[in-house]
User: Fold this.
Amino acid sequence: MTKPTKDKGRAKAAKPVESERSRAETNLARKLVAPALVLMLLVTAFPMLRALYLSLFSYSLSAPDDREFVGLSNYGTALSDPLFWQDTGNTVLIMVVTVFFELVIGFAFALVMHRLIFARGVVRTSILIPYGVITVVSGFAWQFAFSNNNGFVNGWLPFIGDDFNWFAQYDSSMIAIMASEIWKTTPFMSLLLLAGLAQVSEDMIEAAKVDGATWFQRLFKVILPNMRGAIMVAVLFRALDAYRIFDNIFVMTAGANGTESISFLTYRQVVEQFQLGIGSALSVLLFLSVLVVAFVIVKLFRVNLADARQES
Amino acid sequence: MALTGKNKERAQRVGMGVGVALVLGWCLLPVVWIVSLSFKSQQAVTNGSPGFLPADGGGAGFDNYRQVLQDGDFLLAIRNSAVVSLSATILSVAIATLAAYAIARLEFKGKKFVLTTALVIAMFPVVSLVGPLFDMWRTIGLYDTWYGLIIPYISFTLPLAIWTLSAFFREIPWEMEQAAQVDGATSWQAFRKVIVPLAAPGVFTAAILTFFFAWNDFVFGISLTSTENARPIPAALSFFVGADPFNRPASLLAAGAVVATVPIVVLVLFFQRKIVAGLTAGAVKG
Assistant:
């Protein structure tokens, strides 16, 4: 099967028959993608526009009749609230720390799996288990593990007293939250990195070895640069996923001791306090900040999005 | 290098063994822990039972499981999760199959737009939709219903399904369909006997990944439902407080968590290779 219209312009000019065919093809393709496109936009673009609209009102579901146009003042309220910035700070901190550890540990796991000769199936099956475990369950497992009442972490860690309460202050609560997040998502990272590792040519590594490169030189000069695309896509995916962290915080601390994330703040305003006006403003800000994060990562690391979309 | 060939080989083997042990420990320890917790008696948990395994006399056998499986709300939550996740999976994969076929096989203007939309939606901060959807669903009566969850699940799993499927479809040797027709098969036979078996693994992989997403979802589960009419398992677990709100029944919760995790673990055990292929297909060329 040849792809008939790789070069549409020329085909159109030279062969009118071909052009008709390509038009029919476009028509069929549009019919085929329409349901998917409509559904994706219906539940994202449309509500997002509605959030944009509602964010201009003072609107509380507990007093829906008092809805009143207030312009951009909801945004002013949100942006001038220290809580907003504190929660954004938490979210960014969680994103940076978890993605860093996931990258390092995930890469180590990928190296192990790549070189593995025995027990391949067992390792690959186990690595998928954290991926499959519900995030809420992971949150519970780690919350109870860190619990001073019923957990084992205090007993296992040498420098921690048996009655240390991890959830009594900010720092240790954040560590517990990140532990659950890192545990659950490192396997995903390591599988993406494993796929990238498989594309690095063995000949090149062998050649570097023959030239007397040490293991570290081979790693940093040959392997890592050659799987840059895979690393960047993995980082982008995971970073944006970490930025919307919600489940673990909800389950483990419910935002206590200042551990709230920006997603949790938005949720609290809308679902618990029925403040749809300010909640919508927060939704829009959350969406914009994800765009900013995506933009920064793409620009900073020059991620090729075609890699992610499997084009080119 | 001071190591001789034989010693080096042995060192590598030991290193590999340590690596495997670390990976397995990482993946399985928290799972074993929650299973162990589910066997501690509630009495022991209330009094405090630090330690990984149930202490002497602190075990409960299968009591926690018995209690969880007799809890009406928990069973309803399993039912809700099963119905919602399966419906979303079937619909999402069906719709994605059409789109992925077009993306993999046809040339058309707007392909880039579809792929970009899918990419953006895959990274969408779901919580920012909670407010407007909460409001809209209450207005049109979808709040706290199965449909109210199925619809957003379809939308958010479509990107993953489309990527996975179009990656698989690109690898199918479509000319075999024509070859079969030349050999005298009708086009329906050619499709059914040649293309369907080739496409089935991809469709199946997409279905598993979609199901994982729906089963795992928490944000929509807690914000678009309010009763056991539609509340799925993750939300039900998080709202499960027990008799004493200040002292959550950890071991009972753990038993519930294990029950909720079993379907996923079974899927992983049976379809490990397909899941790995599907997960990496969407993100890295290969």
User: Anything to note?
Assistant: Chain A touches chain B through 120 residues (CB under 8 Å). The CA atoms of residues 27 and 33 of chain A lie 10 Å apart. Chain A is about 75% helix and 0% strand.
